[in-house]
Structures are given as C-alpha cells and as structure tokens.
Write the structure tokens for this entry.
Amino acid sequence: MNKLEQYILEHKKLFDEEPSEGHFERLQQKMNRQSRRSSAMRWSISIAASVAIILLAGSIVWQHKGIQDDRMTMCENAVDMKSCYLNRMNAVAERIEALAQNLDQWDRQQIMTDVQNIISIADSGFENELPAELPNHKAKQILSNYYRQNLESLKTIEEQLTINN
C-alpha cells in the first residue's frame, strides 16, 4: 500500500464528516478573489500587448515612410528630377522582370506590358503640359507627385509579385 492509501484508511472518519459551517462560503469567496485577480491580470497583459503591438507597428510604418521620403527627396532635389525618377522606375522594372520569370508566358507578357506603359507614361512629356504661369515650386511639387505615383505603382506590382513568389 502506498502512503496515500495508508493516510485515507487512517483518517477515514474525517472524510465522512461535514466541513465546518461557512466553509463553502469561504472557499467560494477565495475562489472569486483568485478569479478576479487572474481575470484582471489577463486583461492587463492583453492591454499591454495590444499597446506594444500598436507602438511597434507605428514605429515600423514611421521608419519605412522616413526611408521612402528620404529616397523621394533625393529625386526632388536632383538636377534632373525626371531622370532620377525614371532611373528608379527602370530599376524596379528590372526587379519585376526577374520576379516574373516564374510566371507563364501570357501573365509575364501582360505584367511587362503594364510596366512599360507606366514608364512610358511617366516619360511622355507631362512636364510640358503644365501652365507656364505656374510658380516653379508648384510645378516641381506637381511633377514630383506625378512621378512618385508612377514609381509607387511599379513598387506595388513588385510587392505583389514578391508575395506571390
């Protein structure tokens, strides 16, 4: 016989006795306090984790935006902004072409046609269509936004291909 069985046999009468009055109420109160503590602890941990995730996501987005803004600012401050953006677009187009190697011929051709159309549109001479009376800083801002949107379109294609590969 093991020790537990021995103990039960020796104290059998104690197991048959009813607990003292108020025992169940005290036990229930104790369990409620522990339940509230663990519930409060779980909520606290959940809130802290949520705040940490939000702060982390915010800092990642902020850093990524800062990197992107720095890259765009380099083109905006370049002597020939259009050439700078076109060079960046061609670099992205090369990466897209490499990512599209695994696609079937039809999809690959469609993607590369879209990429070439975006670059052609950016190189189409949009800057000549701006009114001459427009202040230089406004014209530069419009052109920068125009080239940036085209570049971002190419980057979106690249991101989708990266995800799908």
Notes: Helices lie at 3-10, 12-16, 23-76, 81-99, 105-122, 136-164. The chain has two domains: 1-67, 78-165. The chain is about 80% helix and 0% strand. The mean pLDDT is 81.
